C-alpha cells in the first residue's frame, strides 16, 4: 500500500486492497469496527461527490488544485485512513486528530515494512482541503 505515490495502481484494485489493510487494523485492535466503517463511508461520499461533477467541472477538477480528490491516486485511501483515525480519536473523547506527529510516518504499526506512510503535513492538509467531504463551518460541508 502506498499512501503517497504519484503513480499508484488503478483505484478499484488499490482502494480494495488498501481497505483490506485498514480492516486488518480492526482485527489487531488499532481501530474499532465503527472507525473502519466511518472511513469507508467518507470515501464513498467522496467518490459520489466526484462522480456527480458535470463534464465541465470534471475537466476543471483535473486542472484546479481545489476541485476534489483525484480518483486515480492514493488520496482516497489516505482519506479513509484519516477518517478512521478521526473516529478513533472521537472514541477516546478527543475532538481533534493532530496530523503533525503522524505526518511522514506509518499510520499503524507494521505499515513501515510496506512503505505505507502518511505524506508530509503540507501535502496531507492540501489533500483534505480538496476533498468534498472535509471543510470548516463556513464551507457548508
Helices and strands in order:
Elements: H1 11-27, H2 33-51, H3 55-63, H4 75-91, H5 121-130
Helix pairs in contact: 1-2, 1-4, 2-4
What would your notes on this structure say?
This protein is mainly α. It is 51% helix and 0% strand. It contains five helices and no strands. Helix 1 runs antiparallel to helix 2, helix 1 (11-27) runs parallel beside helix 4 and helix 2 crosses helix 4. The chain is globular, with a radius of gyration of 15 Å.
Q: What is the percent of helical residues? A: 40-55%
* Pattern of helices and strands: HHHHH
Number of helices: 5
Strand content: under 5%
Pick out the low-confidence regions. Answer: 1-13, 56-67
Number of strands: 0
Gross geometry:
globular
Write a brief caption for the model.
With 141 residues, this protein is mainly α. It has five helices and no strands.
Question: What tags apply to this protein structure?
Answer:
5 helices; globular; disordered N terminus
